[in-house]
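Quick one, C-alpha cells below. Sequence please?
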C-alpha cells in the first residue's frame, strides 16, 4: 500500500531535517569549502560529460520549486543532473531551497562557469542561501553598488569575515551608507568600519535609521558617530523629552559640554546609559551636574559604587563634593597641605644637630611673631 500524501510530506520534512543536521556537524567552513571543491572536481574528472547518474532523472523546471530537492539528489548527482542553463533560469527559486553545503558548493561552481568574470549584481540578488558558501576571495570580484543588494547579501553572510569583505567591497565602490544599510549593519559590523568610513555617514540617513548600537566601537568611533547624531537631531533640542530618547544611544561619544547641557534639562538618565558614558568625560562633571544628569536615579551611584566609572568620579573630587551628593558615597580626593607632610627622623647625630638648629630658629621666629599677633 502506497503511503499517503501527508506521510510523504512528513518523510520529506524529516529528510530535510537530517540534511540540515548533517550540515551542522560538518567541519569548519574553510575545510568544508576545500573538501567540497575536491569532491566535485574528482567527480568531474571521472564523469567526462556523461548523462545524469545513478538512474536519476534530470532536474526539471518543476523540481526547482520542490523543497525536498536536497533529499532527492546528492551533491554529485546534483552536479550531473542539473544543467547550467536550468540553474541560470531558475536561480531565484533554487536560492530559496535549504541545500546542504556540498550541494550549495555545486551550485556555486556552476555559477562560476556561467559567469567566469564574477557574478553580476542582478544575479547576486537572486543567490539566497547560495551566498553562504562564497568566500572572501570570490566576493572581492563582486560589483555591489545598490544598498538593497548589499542588504540581501549581508542577511545571508555566513560569518563576520565574509560580512566585512562584502561591506568593504561595497564601500570601496562608493556605495552609500543609507538608513537601511545602517540599520542592517547595526552593532559590531558597524563598529568594524574604519573611522574614515564612519565619517561618510550622512546625518539625515542616521536620523532615518533605527537606533544604532555603538557599544562595541572604540572611543574615537563613538565620538564620530555622536557628532553625526547630534547634527541629525539638532532641531529637536528645544524639547528635551523628544531630544533625549533620540540622542541617548549615542551618548557614549558625547563631549563634556553635551552632558553639562543635558544636566540642566531634567532628563533623569538611567544608570545603564550613565555607565556607558565616556569615563574621561564623566570625571570632569561637578556634583551638581551629576545630580542634574541622573535626577531621580542618583541613588544608583551608591548601589553601583564599585563600578569603575563611579570610582573614577569619586577619586577626582573632594570629599566635600562627594558628600554633597547625599547618597552616602565614601571617598574623595585627599587634600594637600602641611598635614600631609611627613618628616622622617634623621639617621645620625650630625643630622640631628642640623635639625636642632632649624627647630631653634623656628621657635625663635614664633616667639617673636606670636606676641606681635596677640
Amino acid at each position: 500500500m502506497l503511503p499517503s500524501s501527508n506521510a510523504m510530506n512528513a518523510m520529506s520534512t524529516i529528510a530535510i531535517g537530517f540534511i540540515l543536521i548533517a550540515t551542522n556537524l560538518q567541519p569548519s567552513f574553510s575545510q568544508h569549502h576545500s573538501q567540497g571543491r575536491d569532491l566535485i572536481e574528482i567527480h568531474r574528472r571521472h564523469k567526462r560529460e556523461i548523462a545524469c547518474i545513478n538512474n536519476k532523472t534530470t532536474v526539471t523546471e518543476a523540481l526547482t520549486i520542490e523543497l525536498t530537492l536536497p533529499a532527492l539528489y546528492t551533491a554529485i548527482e546534483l552536479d550531473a543532473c542539473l544543467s547550467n542553463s536550468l540553474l541560470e533560469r531558475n536561480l531565484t527559486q533554487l536560492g530559496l531551497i535549504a541545500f546542504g553545503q556540498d550541494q550549495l558548493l555545486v551550485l556555486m561552481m556552476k555559477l562560476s562557469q556561467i559567469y567566469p568574470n564574477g557574478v553580476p549584481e542582478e544575479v547576486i540578488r537572486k543567490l539566497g542561501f547560495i551566498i553562504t558558501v562564497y568566500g572572501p576571495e570570490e566576493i572581492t570580484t563582486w560589483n555591489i553598488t545598490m544598498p538593497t543588494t548589499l542588504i540581501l547579501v549581508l542577511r545571508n553572510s555566513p560569518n563576520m569575515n565574509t560580512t566585512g569583505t562584502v561591506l568593504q567591497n561595497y564601500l570601496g565602490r562608493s556605495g552609500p551608507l543609507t538608513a537601511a544599510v545602517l540599520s542592517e549593519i547595526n552593532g559590531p559590523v558597524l563598529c568594524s568600519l574604519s573611522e574614515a568610513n564612519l565619517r561618510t555617514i550622512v546625518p539625515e540617513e542616521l536620523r532615518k535609521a533605527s537606533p544604532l548600537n555603538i557599544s562595541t566601537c572604540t572611543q574615537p568611533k563613538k565620538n564620530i558617530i555622536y557628532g553625526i547624531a547630534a547634527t541629525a537631531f539638532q532641531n529637536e533640542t528645544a524639547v528635551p523629552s523628544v531630544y533625549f530618547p533620540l540622542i541617548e544611544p549615542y551618548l557614549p561619544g558625547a563631549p563634556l559640554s553635551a552632558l553639562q547641557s543635558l544636566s540642566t534639562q531634567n532628563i533623569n538618565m538611567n544608570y545603564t546609559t550613565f555607565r556607558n558614558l565616556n569615563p574621561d568625560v564623566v570625571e570632569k562633571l561637578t556634583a551638581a551636574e551629576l545630580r542634574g544628569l541622573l535626577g531621580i536615579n542618583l541613588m544608583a551611584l551608591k548601589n553601583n559604587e564599585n563600578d569603575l566609572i563611579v570610582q573614577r568620579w569619586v577619586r577626582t573630587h573632594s570629599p566635600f563634593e562627594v558628600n554633597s551628593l547625599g547618597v552616602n558615597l565614601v571617598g574623595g580626593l585627599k587634600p594637600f597641605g602641611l598635614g600631609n607632610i611627613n618628616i622622617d627622623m634623621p639617621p645620625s647625630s650630625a643630622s640631628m644637630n642640623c635639625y636642632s638648629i632649624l627647630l631653634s630658629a623656628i621657635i625663635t621666629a614664633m616667639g617673636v611673631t606670636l606676641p606681635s599677633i596677640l
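Residues 25-114 form a domain with the Transferase, Pyrimidine Nucleoside Phosphorylase; Chain A, domain 3 fold (CATH 1.20.970.40). The CA atoms of residues 170 and 333 lie 51 Å apart.
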